[in-house]
Amino acid sequence: MLLSCLSFLKRISAPTICRHRFAGCQFKLQQFTFCHARGNVVADSASMDLKSELLKSIWYAFTALDVEKSGKVSKSQLKVLSHNLYTALNIPHDPVSLEEHFRDDDDGPVSNQGYMPYLNKYILAKAKEGTFDKETFDDLCWMMTSKKNYKPSSDNGFISRKEAFKLWCLFNFLSENRYPLVMIPEEVEYLIKKMFSALSLEWDRKDLDDFYAENPELMNGISVWKFLELMESRRLFKSVTSESVSLAVDEVFQEIYHDILKKGYMWKKGQVRRNWNERWFVLKPSSISYYVSEDMKEKKGEIKLDNSCTVESIPDKDGRRCLFCIKTVNRTFEISASDMKQRVEWMQAIQTSLRLLSEGKTSYQKELKLRRIKLREQSVKDKEDLQLLRELQEEKERQIQEIENLKKKQQEAEALRREEEEREWELQKETQLALQKQLLEAEKTRAIMAAEIAQREQESERQRLRIKELETTQRSLEMALDVEIQARLEEERARVEQARLIEEEQEKLTQLRLLQEEQQALLNQTQKEKQEIHHIVTEQANALENASQELKKLQESKQKNDQNLEEATKKLRKASRHVTHWSVQLNRLKQPVGPGSNTVSGGAHHKDLPLPGATGAFSSNEFIVKQQFKKTGQKSQEDQSSDTLHEWAVLLSSDEDEKVQEQLKKVTMSEASRTM
Hints:
GO terms for molecular function: DNA binding. Residues 259-355 form the PH domain. It is found in: Cell membrane; Cell projection, Lamellipodium; Cytoplasm; Nucleus. Keywords: Cell membrane, Cell projection, Coiled coil, Cytoplasm, DNA-binding, Membrane, Nucleus, Phosphoprotein. Helices cover 64% and strands 7% of the residues. By secondary structure, it is α+β, with helices and mostly antiparallel strands. The strands form three sheets. The chain has a seven-stranded antiparallel β-sheet, covered by helices on one side. A hairpin with a 7-residue loop joins β7 (287-291) and β8.
């Protein structure tokens, strides 16, 4: 194979390359268009299958043959390239198909689609994973492209050609699925972090940021040759020796390129002799291989992993500790790790492999790369959403400004309206003063006429006054009864409200206990889960605090309702006393007037009776209370508010109550004088 590659390189580098009518063969595919001269290649990045991985390496080999950078390679070069690809991919050679694909006719080359359809149909379609060594295949493509493009500063540079080849393979794996192949800054950072982790050193990204600051055009992607030039310059590994970097590159190469999840020494119990032997184990997604030593020259066996496999920890025995077993369909492998940490790491790595197999995935590193791609896409989406949110915020601020302007205009209009209302109010006040003057004159005239009528009808006026006093007493009694009824209704409402608040308080207490139990359960989880659920615990704590505040508010509302209930009870007792008092007065006033009472005179008695024109029955405070009773009775039918009840309860228990009692006392005295 190596001789074939060397002969191929000699042939393609010869100056007498025969260029004929097939020099126009372009490297094309429906999803891929290699146009090296223009520097733009469109690729479908939705998959990371074997074909896309092989195409990346073949693209470097093809562009190495494109000396003029026109996207065209001679037919003889394509024959040699195809022959070496057949050999490297371990598939049968088909020399006739290339001649048939690019055969001559009268109009020139039959195939105008270029080399890509042939590559897809006769080479890539026949390549099967596991039937060839991909590292050998990549080594072939690396030799072709490095001869033309890789030019180290010296033969004994910071990195050797072997490490350069491994970095080239890692670059291809981590590069984007678009051509020309580039690796974005996030993937460059990921690879460098891996290398520093292998060196057990802490990475400072300042040097990489300085590199991108000096070359801002590389923020969209760096080519493999620029990347190798960066690694060769040692600006990222100033205090690290070339031997350490070589070991780090090899370790990262084994982990990412060969998809090794974990490797290390462990003891394995034999199946036949049942003795314990130390072996070097290498875990891949579908198998665990074990060797005599870490150079992996002598392989002792392999454990095939499938969906039926399980891994379990087992108790210490035979003087061995940190034991676990791998159960397959045919056999159970007993293994002893060096310590508990190693056992946990190995069991977790094996469980990861089994999970990938159950999900139908064959590569752990491809899965990690897809996750990183999804995270980057999500980050881009989040940035777009943030930009949209900012635009919406600006639009909202603009609308708020418009609303403020409208408010200012409305305030100005309101000020004008108020000025107009003030002018109308002044006019109404003047009109009202004129009407009051006319009303006073009418009152004086009516007082004179009432005095004359009173002299003629004193007896009838006395009877009418008594009837009115009885009516006033009856209305006062009815009002006291209404106040008592309203007080009872208010007490009942307060009791219902208190019961509702108690139920809400019980519900909040139940929620509080549930939140406390949930918080206690969250706090009892392991330290590893603590970081993941810290945000949830914070939300639960906030919810607990809100529930406590609501409970406190309910308790304050309950206390307030208790006070209202106590006040309503006091009002009810006071109203009951008024009802009793007015009932007694009503029974006393119900005594009939005897015959001949109109002859009982006494100028003094007539003087005690109120006159209409002065401080009489119709203009006294008793008359005012009567009118207010009428208005209040109508209002209480429309509005049963607690404020109105409280106002009239105070009215009945204050000065007007004393005045009514004083009138009743006068009536009683006149009644007694008449009976004498």
